[in-house]
Amino acid sequence: MHIPDGYLSPSTCAVLGAVMAPVWYRASYKLKYTLDAARVPLLAMGAVFSFLIMLFNVPIPDGTTAHAVGASLLAIVLGPWAAVIALSVALFIQALVFGDGGILAFGANTFNMAFIAPFAGYYTYALLGKGAKPGAKRQLTAAFAAGYISINIAALAAALEFGCQPLLFTAADGTPLYCPYGFSVTIPAMMLAHLTVAGLVEGFITLIALKCIIHAEIPLGLEKTDKEEIQDV
Length: 233
Known about the structure:
Elements: H1 10-34, H2 40-53, E1 57-59, E2 65-67, H3 71-78, H4 80-98, H5 106-129, H6 137-163, H7 165-168, H8 183-215, H9 226-232
Antiparallel strand pairs: 1-2
């Protein structure tokens, strides 16, 4: 799902980077006032966890590979705004040091994997697992669904970003300047891999890791409630 440089136009990258700027600001603000300093190491561990699992690529039938992200797990354990920061840090290191995802496409990659994915996973989990007892079957089912849905929504966003390029950016003779494939190619290509393989991997990782975290009695959600935040300020 990491988008390399050259597949999206500079203007597309700039727009998505501009979209992420207020997201990062809001996430930083939320953590400044709501994150318990004693739990900062857990935030760092979340970034490392995401960084590591994104390095393991799973072969898929079309001859390419896909990978898990860990966005839902981080959102459930850390809170969605903390997950934005943790995932953005992981993606930045991958792009800068390993060339996994482009530098210019950093805004697009973080938009998909550090913004859309954690919030989609967080609200899916909150909807399906609301009121469930720790370790209950419904809670773990909600965790699996959160992982599965979140990565597929992020993959769809990437497919749409790829697919709009030949419609918006062409040479005088009509030759696409960036990604040459339209929606009829990019959507099936991205969604087949994630609906059948990557989504299942993401779902099971979220389920298993959350079960271990519950067993270790680590509290879920590093962020305080909005009411507590107002009182602190």
